[in-house]
Fold this protein.
Amino acid sequence: MSAPTEEVLGTTRREGKRLMDLWWQEMTEAVQTGRPTAYVFAMGSMAELLRTFDFVLNFPEITSLQIAVRGQSQAYIQTAEDYGFSPDVCGYVKADVGLQLRQGEHPYGKVPRPSLVVTSNVCNTYIKWSEFWEHLYGCPVFVMDLPGWRGRDSADLNGETFRNDARYVLGQLRELIELCERITGRRFDLDRFREHLAEANRMAELYNAVCETNRHIPAPFNAVVEGVTYQGIAHLYRGSPQGSRYFQQVLQEMQERIRLGMAAVPDERFRLVLVGTTCYSHFRRFVELFASWGGVFVHSTYMVFAGGGFLPGFVYDLSRPLESFAERMVAAAYWGYTGSMFYQQDWLDEVVRRWHVDGICFHGVKSCRTVSTGLPDVREWMRVQRNVPGLFIQSDLVDPRLWSDAQVKNRVDAFFEALAAHKATTRR
Amino acid sequence: MDDLERIFDDLRALVEDPTFPAVRRWLTENPQGKVVGSFQVFFPEEVAHAAGMLPIKIAGAGGTIQVRQADARIAAFVCSIVRSSLELALSGRLDFLSVMVVPNICDAARNACGVWVRSFPHMRVETLYHPHNAASAHAVDYLTGEYRRIGRILEEIGGRPITDEALRASIALFNENRRLLREVYRIKREAPWLLSAVESYLLVRSAGLMPREEHNALLRRVLELLPHRPTKKQDRIRVVFEGGFCEQPPLDMLAVIQNACYIVDDDLMIGLRWITDDVPTEGDLWRNLADSYLNRSSYSPVQRDPRKPKAEMLLRRIRESGAEAAIVAAAKMCEPGLEEQVHYSRALEAAGIPHLVMEFEETMTVFEQVGMEVETFAESLLFQFA
């Protein structure tokens, strides 16, 4: 029997907040108890493996963006710049440097020191960021090297390139396991690992099902509002039963919203995709600029690359857990991470078609060259090759000094005026 | 004008000519020849050479061209070398390239590779993934496979197999080039008055702009002439210049620095000097190349290798070159360089080594400020050491 409507609606927000608070509680407690903490990153977190060793997982990208959402990032960034970091360095890094130099005092709680840092190379800045902690704390840093998309050579999952990459990642996983065993004093438990993989399988399937609900017109959620929470929970609870349960609830709520005809943006007029990230220092304002025109973000590359690389079909083979984990990590690096950031045109092409998209917003942020460098080029490609209108704007993830309200608003307004004309023309 | 001056004048003209005259000359002599471009920092050029192709280094255009089209394709907060390299191609100056390889050095470069793929559908554009877990016991195996992958692409495009015999000969040729370049750097360290910073830079940079056989002959000639140069030792401080691993400082900026200091070592165009010892020419040659990249090599902010902590490596470079101070530079908007600069500065401070921190851009045209900073820095040290 399904739950009554009033119980289903709003579950996502309440449960998301509860899980986020729980994470902060766990981190703050770890400061007192000394429970081993691993600093990890959204893309290639190795959460399933690290959970097997009971590490508390700190995601510094999330703690940094939360500082910005709280409107406090400038002070933290300033601390990092006083320490010697250039104004042209990633704001996430600097907000975190400010946080570490404040002994982990965060608006939401306290961040424990790292017992271990696990970083992938999906964003090269992850590595430089990790080296800051290495210098500050002398903690071990493990780079999980995930070779990325290399065109036609990567396309064949039975091909030599994929097999070479997967062998390399598998070898590194075994080295990471040894390191975790040394740090925690625990033996690696393969059965427990398998359980985390099974939970990640469930989460991946549900995450994709939730994304699919937004194909409905009107869209039941905004990929740049609720979507960002989904990404956060997908990271913090990847491989855990709470995470899968959460996405079951989200799916249920979205289905209920569709049944009731509820729209994420009232009077939906324009269906958009965001390419890049949002602006956390002006989070509400960013969304409002689009929503005020009846624009809803039905999907984003952000939900792909910063959603754990959970592309459709993501599933671990539980009969060969480590090998399968290695293979999935490589596949995620190919399509979920580097593919969706550097070669997103094919993905966009499909999403525009299947999600009934009217236009694309390309948001370049100074903080992140990984996602932003080629955005003007992709915009042009989509315009010329696919006749899909695109807006290119620039600001930052967390540095409020880089937000120019009048300039962004002018561009957004002009885009919607053009989009309305384009829509009218193409309809004819 | 003596022979050396003539050589350096010619090299400067070559380095500052965005039409790649030596490459075009090679193509005239080898009408069926194919050219492989590689972006910074390191590419195993031996592999391209063994495939019968001409490997060249694409390292930006400095201030020699106006960036127009690339600005419309790349976001504003990206370093100059990424945009000017793209501009070289968009403006047709790299129309001779059959293959372009972009190593995974940084976020901007990997992303720019996507721009190249979309912009030049007729050209084979490849990302080369060098290991970032260099200390892993599996890194050499992986990289051997990755080099073989690049080799297969070059065989396909070049239309001829890379035989062991050809690869062995190419490795020997490049070993000789690296040996000669090490000799250039020995002179820089031991007798910097014989070879200015600009001159030594031209000798290195030109390696990536002409056939290596010619370059070896050129280096031999220069090394023969240098000891007889009638220049005298001057009272200048000895510095290491760090920060030129990717985007290159303008030649005039180096000239301004050398007016006040002897640059006795540096990381300029480090990719062409990345391998610090001969690559073995026996056994599995592909593996030897991979092993040399990882285990017989220099350091840079864009390679993670815990066995080579970068700040410690810089201190070693300073120590081994007998430098008294360092200039720690970073290219504008270069995320890895700017982040490393923080650690370099703090390490130098802790070690009590005087250093000057600066930013540059390849397109800079005004150097009064740099000149004043370097002069003040050098003078303060001269007084201190006196």
Remarks:
- Strands of chain B lie at 35-39, 54-58, 97-103, 124-128, 237-242, 261-266, 325-331, 355-360.
- Chain B touches chain A through 58 residues (CB under 8 Å).
- The longest strand of chain B covers residues 97-103.
